[in-house]
């Protein structure tokens, strides 16, 4: 700690928001680096949390009229050299989450941001910044500060032409061309090509670096045209606070939710189960297979716990006992729910996470799911769960049955291994070591 204190850095974290999913990940990064002894400001478009280190961006009027005049002249020259068209609504296939409409636009005033932040950053870390800033804004920040810039892959957007999920498209590997499956109107498809080329150009000029948020996005970043030449790509694997999410109360967790010790509880869920990326139809198929194959005395022990804001209507046809639980935001209660469950299932077919996988493992709950996202390197067959090929309901059912039929000692080993995997590759302590390496460069 003394070494870090002697070489204290100014760190800027950029994110559209500070709560939920990808925004929560940026908040965790801010906390980890702040606890390492550095000066940290998290600048967001929408502020929800009360912490003082989180500051909301707003455009400030420059005190000097002369400075305003200079900026107007500079912008006028820029627009003459390279005109920037205003962002427009384009027609897209929603499953790709093509949200970056214009990488050439400038969305923030750098002097305003630096004045709000209160220092010139040495390092900048960005997560999800949709509807806030883009790679051109990041280049402008670099030009003004010469800070080292790291983009964190909460999804694929940092190295695509605009989509957050590729669904098999290899544009991020080759460079987005005139054909883009995410954009539905022919004359608008050029948007992806223009975005990608601007992103690539900006990354080269400012030497952007990437940090992976999961095993899958690590592989994708390593193959991407924009970041394939980066020598080392670190992977922070979700970032789990093991002081909150752990297995210390596993022996009493079922009592908290009035669950029976004689039943086997399968936990699954998402904020929106209707999202096709989450692949819940494959879980339904796997459960139907188990319904046919398991003898009645075993089937009666299985209870499905579903956590979601909205439950897919098709879950009504599941014959196993089931119980809906409202989406939980309190991490202490969520930790107890994970500990109360005997198995967590993730059926995402196109996902960079989800964080729920690492959260469940941290609480000593084995995981079964498709080999994508965070499962790629956090779930190990016959160790802490099972991985099935994406969209393979048969293999998914087999993985569920294997965990269900583990004897007590083998299950205990799976549970301990789940915790160990998070402590070694997904904990705050693990992430701190990674950020220490980065900040000491």
UniProtKB/TrEMBL annotation:
SUPFAM superfamilies: UDP-Glycosyltransferase/glycogen phosphorylase (SSF53756)
UniProt GO molecular function: glycosyltransferase activity
Matching InterPro entries: Glyco_trans_1
Record key words, sorted: Glycosyltransferase, Transferase
Residue ranges crossing the lipid bilayer per the database entry: none
Any Pfam family: Glycos_transf_1
EC top class named in words: transferase
Domain (Glycosyl transferase family): residue spans on this chain: 276-418
Its EC number(s): 2.4.-.-
UniProt cross-references to PANTHER family, sorted A to Z: GLYCOSYLTRANSFERASE (PTHR12526), GLYCOSYLTRANSFERASE EPSF-RELATED (PTHR12526:SF637)
Protein name per its UniProtKB record: Glycosyltransferase
The species this protein was found in: Chryseobacterium nepalense
Taxonomic lineage: Bacteria, Pseudomonadati, Bacteroidota, Flavobacteriia, Flavobacteriales
């Amino acid at each position: 700690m003394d070494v870090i204190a002697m070489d204290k850095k100014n760190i800027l974290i950029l994110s559209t928001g500070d709560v939920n999913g990808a925004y929560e990940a940026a908040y965790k990064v801010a906390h980890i680096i702040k606890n390492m002894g550095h000066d940290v400001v998290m600048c967001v478009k929408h502020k929800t949390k009360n912490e003082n280190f989180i500051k909301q961006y707003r455009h400030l009027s420059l005190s000097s009229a002369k400075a305003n005049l200079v900026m107007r002249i500079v912008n006028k020259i820029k627009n003459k050299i390279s005109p920037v068209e205003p962002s427009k609504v384009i027609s897209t296939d929603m499953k790709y989450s093509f949200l970056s409409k214009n990488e050439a636009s400038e969305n923030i005033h750098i002097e305003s941001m630096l004045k709000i932040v209160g220092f010139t950053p040495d390092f900048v870390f960005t997560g999800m910044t949709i509807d806030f800033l883009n790679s051109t804004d990041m280049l402008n920040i670099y030009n003004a500060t010469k800070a080292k810039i790291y983009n964190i892959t909460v999804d694929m957007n940092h190295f695509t032409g605009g989509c957050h999920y590729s669904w098999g498209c290899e544009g991020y590997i080759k460079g987005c061309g005139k054909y883009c499956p995410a954009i539905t109107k022919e004359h608008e498809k050029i948007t992806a090509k223009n975005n990608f080329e601007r992103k690539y150009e900006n990354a080269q000029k400012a030497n952007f670096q990437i940090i992976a948020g999961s095993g899958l996005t690590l592989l994708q970043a390593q193959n991407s045209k924009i970041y394939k030449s980066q020598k080392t790509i670190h992977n922070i694997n979700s970032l789990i606070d093991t002081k909150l999410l752990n297995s210390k109360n596993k022996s009493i967790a079922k009592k908290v939710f009035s669950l029976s010790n004689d039943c086997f509880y399968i936990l699954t869920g998402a904020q929106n189960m209707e999202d096709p990326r989450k692949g819940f139809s494959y879980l339904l198929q796997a459960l139907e297979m188990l319904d046919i194959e398991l003898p009645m005395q075993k089937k009666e022990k299985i209870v499905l716990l579903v956590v979601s804001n909205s439950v897919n209507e098709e879950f009504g046809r599941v014959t196993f006992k089931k119980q809906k639980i409202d989406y939980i935001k309190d991490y202490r209660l969520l930790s107890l729910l994970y500990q109360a469950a005997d198995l967590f299932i993730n059926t995402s077919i196109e996902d960079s996470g989800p964080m729920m996988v690492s959260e469940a493992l941290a609480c000593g709950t084995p995981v079964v799911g498709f080999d994508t996202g965070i499962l790629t390197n956090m779930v190990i067959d016959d160790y802490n769960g099972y991985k099935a090929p994406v969209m393979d309901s048969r293999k998914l059912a087999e993985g569920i049955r294997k965990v269900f039929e583990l004897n007590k000692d083998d299950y205990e080993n799976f549970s301990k291994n789940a915790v160990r995997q998070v402590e070694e590759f997904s904990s705050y302590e693990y992430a701190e070591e990674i950020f220490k390496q980065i900040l000491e460069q």
